Amino acid sequence: MRTIKEFKKGFSTELAPFRLVLGLCPALAVTTSAENGLGMGLATTFVLICSNILISLLRNLIPKKVRIACYIVLIATFVVTVELLLQAFFYPLYERLGIFVSLIVVNCIILGRAEAFASKNQIGYSAVDGLGIGLGFTMSLTLLGGIRELLGAGKLFGMAIMWKGFEPFTFMVKAPGAFIILGILLFLMNFMGSLNKGKT
Amino acid sequence: MKEIAMMVLVTTIICSFSAAWLGALDSGLKNRISRQQDYFVRGPAIMELFAGCPNNPLADRVTMTFGKDYINIYPWIEKGKVRRIILERCGHGGYGGDVVVMTAVDLESNRIYGVRVTRHKETPGVGTRAMEPSYLNKYISLLVIDDIKLKNDGGQIDAITGATRSSTAIANGVDRAAKFVLTNKEKIIKSILGNRGT
Fold it and tell me: Residue range A61-89: average pLDDT?
């Protein structure tokens, strides 16, 4: 039961960019298309699951005073692993995500989960927590990227799907578009949240 | 005392395991990554520079050592003679560090045949404006013998406004490639033909 609960919270109460408002740097910067959002999300999920498992495994070994340093070393190791794997197998995606792959190291979601969850819970729960939060993050990034790509380029995952003669809002794929779409999504989330609260 | 020893021990062990793992992974994937770069970055740039080349410049590549640097050289071979070469060299002084520049040199006229940028960490939309072919084509037919510099430094090439440092790094990369060709021309031709013969 608890496993399901830990998994589901990543999509509802602790949905990273929209509910916790964490991990905004990649959420704003790389979501120029649905594919970029998906790639970034999956890379983060991989790092999150690996770091959660390892930190949970070592939680009784790592002395309290140097825990943050140890977590960062472990996280950085997985991030460089992802970077090398992306270079070796998905080079075009690596080129598009650019510096933001290395910046997963300082993504606050990952250190946040390590500190708040993995360092206090068993391996199984930590892995499920990483998977849930990671997939929630991936979903949000893909959604954000999808909306921006649809409005900004008239495409979705690189396929043209808008009607003929559709004039793309080019600014949606530029930096300001990210803030506007994120703001609207946050508003919708909070609005729906307050509606639900009103009912009960 | 025991606590401090424990802290040092644990961090050391974690760091050494990380280093060992990453070292192993890097050497394991090195060839694959280099092949991916050939396919997605170097290949297209070389094809653009050497449109109509009779041989495959990637397959005939030679690597020469120059001081501490390794320099990749891609030849255009026609009727058993090396007509043109592309050199890959870093240009120093970019905003985000070194910029890797591919410089094609025509060995008959000793002039620049074309320039492309393959790897860089410059700001997208700012520094990258200095990497558009329309700008890089201004280098074409400059003499290898001259010092290739920006006009600000007393040279021949205009900098792109707002991207002076990226432009400087590219000019530096081209200049270093030209200097290398100038001093090592015979050696380069020899090693290319030697490589092909075997």
Answer: 91
- In this complex, is the C-beta atom of B197 within 8 Å of any C-beta atom belonging to chain A? no
DSSP A53-104: HHHHHTTTTS-GGGHHHHHHHHHHHHHHHHHHHHHHH-HHHHHHHTHHHHGG
DSSP conformational letter for A105: G
For residue A22, give how far its alpha carbon lies from the nearest alpha carbon of chain B (Å).
25
ipTM of the complex model: 0.78
B89 close to B66: Cβ distance less than 8 angstroms: no
Question: Any CB–CB contact under 8 A between B11 and chain A?
Answer: yes
For A77, the closest of B3, B22, B121 (CB atoms) is B22
- What is the distance between the terminal CA atoms of chain A, rounded to a whole angstrom? 24
User: Reduced to 3 states, what is the DSSP secondary structure of residue A43?
Assistant: helix
- Measure Cα distances from A66 to A57, A62, A73, A114 in Å: 16, 7, 11, 14
pLDDT reading at B21 higher than 90 = yes
d(CA B36, CA B118): 13
Q: Which of A61, A63, A88 sits opposite B29 (nearest CB)?
A: A88
User: Residues of B69-78 as b/e, b for ≥16 C-beta within 10 angstroms?
Assistant: eebbbbbbbe
* Token output for B12: 């050391």
Give the pLDDT of residue B51: 85
3-class secondary structure, B92:
strand
What is d(CA A199, CA A189) in angstroms, rounded to the nearest whole number?
16
User: What's the CA angle centered on B135, arms B131 and B139, to 5 degrees?
Assistant: 105
How much is the average pLDDT of A49-70? 90
pLDDT digits (tens, 9 = 90+) for B39-52: 888 888 888 888 88
By three-state DSSP, how is residue A41 classified? Answer: helix
* Segment holding B84, helix H or strand E: strand B81-94
Per the listing, tokens 């900004």 go with A152
